[in-house]
Design a protein that fits this description.
The protein is an all-alpha fold and 224 residues long. The protein has one domain (2-221). 85% of the residues lie in helices and 0% in strands. Helix 2 packs antiparallel against helix 9. The protein is globular and about 65 Å long.
């Protein structure tokens, strides 16, 4: 019990940890609002307010995060030309997302002209989508390479070394699958803004996608 509490404290001390918790509030409230909208309008209104306030607080908390992409590229530009290109495209898309998300937040709270919100939301979502596509491609390539490496290790005779390396490869694969799940879910949410359609824009689709993204991120950021 104490170990779990300690890990929770560490998790919530991270910016991403707080973001995933508030994201859970945001999309749970969206689903509850949809569920009770017809039967209990007053409760639906309260949960809608919770959803909106959670979304706005997440935007405020992400202030300056677009600089993370620069730092990641500076520290780890990629081991090959292919991954270097994927990293540049993925992080560039994410930087566009976080940068214009600032203006979206300011327009929604009334600091900037409210008419800018729709345009800023579109640009932010477009950059987000581009970033997610290249992050997903990179993760699938690395998962495939990990599977090949695992097969090669299993064919060797070093049993003790084999166990440690295979365990490490499998742990990395799980993390990458969680990243893919989160990115696909967030891509659906972004597509609902870029090209509105009945499937992506439905409250259940958005709610489930948001929770998949939040909980996959929760798993990836939870202290080991």
């Amino acid at each position: 019990m104490n170990d779990t509490v300690d890990k929770l404290v560490v998790f919530l001390a991270k910016r991403d940890g707080i973001d995933k918790l508030v994201k859970t509030f945001q999309y749970v409230s969206k689903l509850v609002n949809w569920h009770v909208e017809a039967t209990n309008p007053d409760m639906a209104k309260r949960f809608k307010q919770w959803e909106v306030s959670s979304g706005l607080s997440r935007k405020a908390f992400r202030t300056g995060r677009f600089l993370t992409g620069f730092n990641l590229l500076r520290r780890n530009p990629g081991s090959s030309n292919t991954f270097r290109l994927l990293a540049v495209l993925a992080n560039a898309g994410e930087m566009v997302y976080f940068f214009f998300d600032h203006f979206l937040w300011l327009s929604r709270i009334g600091t900037l002209d409210a008419k800018l919100a729709k345009r800023m939301s579109y640009i932010s979502a477009f950059g987000e989508s581009v970033g997610y596509v290249f992050f997903i491609i990179a993760d699938f390539i690395l998962i495939k390479e990990g599977i090949k490496a695992e097969r090669k290790i299993k064919s060797s005779k070093e049993e003790e070394e084999e166990k440690g390396m295979v365990k490490k490869i499998r742990a990395d694969r799980i993390m990458r699958l969680m990243a893919v799940a989160a990115n696909v879910a967030d891509l659906i949410i972004a597509l609902a803004e870029i090209e509105p359609n009945p499937f992506c824009c439905h409250a259940v689709t958005l709610g489930i996608s948001g929770l998949v993204s939040a909980w996959a991120g929760w798993y990836r950021n939870w202290p080991s």
